[in-house]
Amino acid sequence: MSDNSASRPAKNGLFAWFTLRRALLHAGVFAYCVALFLGFDFAYSTLTRGEEKQRAVRIANPLYDHGLAANFDGYDIWGELRYRLLTDSLGFKDGSVRDVPLKSSSRRILLIGDSFAEGIGMSFEDTFAGMLYRAGQERSEKVEFLNAGVASYSPSIYYKKVKYLIESGLQFDEVVVFSDPSDVNDEATSYFCIDDDPKYRAHCSPTEGSAQSRAALFRNTDFFTHHFVVTNRVRIYIKQSIQTILGNRRKWINTDHTYIEWTVPGLDVGNNYQPLGVDGGIARSLQNMGALADLLAVRNIPLTIVVHPWPQQIAQGDRGGRQVALWSEFCKLRCKTFINVFPAFFAAADADKDWYQHLYILGDVHFSAAGHRLMFGEVAKHLF
Question: Which fold has domain 56-219+247-383?
Answer without folding.
Answer: Rossmann fold (3.40.50)
